[in-house]
Write a structure and sequence with these properties.
By secondary structure, the chain is of the alpha+beta class. The protein has nine helices and 17 strands.
């Protein structure tokens, strides 16, 4: 029986174009505007090295009193604008899937076609896992180093203590949002676990707006786009029950740049493997720069790049701007 092999249909540049259908830019996190990609960040992701500098200008100090007179005997001293620096770490990632030719022949279909069809989705999920992990790391750093000034916790640690006020509710949402002060109105999205989404629906707080096709499919809460992901943090209470962490995001909370690996897609055939039956392996490689605004990436990863576990650690991040300039807030509820 003849079997069309992956090597018969894979042309790397064509393959990359159709796997892009499931690229991170198609995710709700990206489309909500909380992640911003631009040419500068793409270029930074292609510079090589493990870390890069992302300089920025600090805001003008609104507490500086302006000059009040036109006394010609005095010369005014101008104020200055100060620069800050963020340090970001580039992630160099790769994954491969292989299959013996004989397995496909016996099954009557080629498992590598499934790999080809789903690899784009795999990478999008990995991208979202890394974004959520980094967000968890920012929360851990905030608790450890900044007195939890980005967090509102109303959750009870025991099931018997759970009330309407410890569950997700509008008052708690508002208080969490205004940990950002007068820039809370810049919030654009909230990411929640599906159990929190269920509470929102039960409270009749979800409003659906049209997508690009005019279908009422995009959920919003208090004007913010709702992103539902069961990768959002949920932990057991200290005695019983569960505590859910929801995250409020403003525009541009994360910057994203995508570099180009030397060989982004590679197909490897080993004719002698499988006792001569042949084995095919499809490899994909990604170079990502995914960095939260207002932070430096600190600590030393165990490998070239941070793992998702390392991204979620407090020691991996350090805030370098004032709290209100970080467009992120955290809410912990039952």
């Amino acid at each position: 029986m003849a079997l069309t092999q992956l090597s018969d249909v894979i042309i790397p540049d064509v393959y990359e174009s159709y796997t892009a259908v499931d690229a991170p830019v198609k995710s709700a996190f990206f489309q909500s505007g909380i992640v911003v990609q631009n040419a500068m960040l793409n270029a930074k992701a292609n510079t090589g090295g493990k870390t890069i500098d992302l300089p920025f200008w600090k805001d003008l100090d609104s507490t500086d009193e302006p000059n009040l007179s036109d006394d010609t005997t005095n010369s005014a001293t101008p104020a200055k604008v100060e620069a800050g620096e963020q340090i970001a770490r580039i992630a160099y990632l790769n994954q491969g899937y292989s299959s013996a030719d004989l397995a496909g022949e016996i099954a009557g279909s080629d498992p590598m076609q499934q790999v080809r069809n789903r690899f784009g989705t795999y990478w999008t999920r990995q991208w979202q896992r890394r974004l959520i992990a980094a967000t968890n790391g920012l929360l851990a750093d905030n608790i450890a180093a900044d007195s939890s000034d980005m967090l509102l916790k109303v959750a009870a640690e025991a099931t018997g203590s759970v009330t309407a006020s410890t569950q997700f509710n509008r008052d708690a949402f508002t208080e969490a949002a205004y940990t950002m002060g007068d820039v809370a109105t810049d919030l654009q999205a909230i990411a929640v676990h599906s159990r929190i989404m269920a509470q929102m629906v039960k409270n009749d707080d979800i409003v659906y707006i049209p997508d690009s096709q005019g279908m009422l499919t995009i959920p919003t809460y208090m004007g913010l786009r709702v992103i539902v992901d069961d990768g959002m943090t949920v932990r057991a209470g200290t005695t019983s029950g569960f505590v859910y962490t929801s995250v409020l995001f403003g525009a541009g909370a994360f910057g994203y740049g995508e570099g180009s690996a030397k060989m982004p897609v590679e197909l490897d055939r080993e004719a002698a493997k499988g006792n001569g039956g042949g084995i095919e392996t499809l490899w994909e490689r990604k170079t990502w720069l995914l960095h939260p605004f207002g932070y430096q990436a600190t600590g030393t990863p165990s490998g070239v790049s941070f793992t998702t576990t390392e991204l979620a650690a407090a020691t991996s991040w350090s805030r370098v701007v004032e709290r209100k300039n970080v467009p992120i807030a955290f809410l912990q509820t039952n």
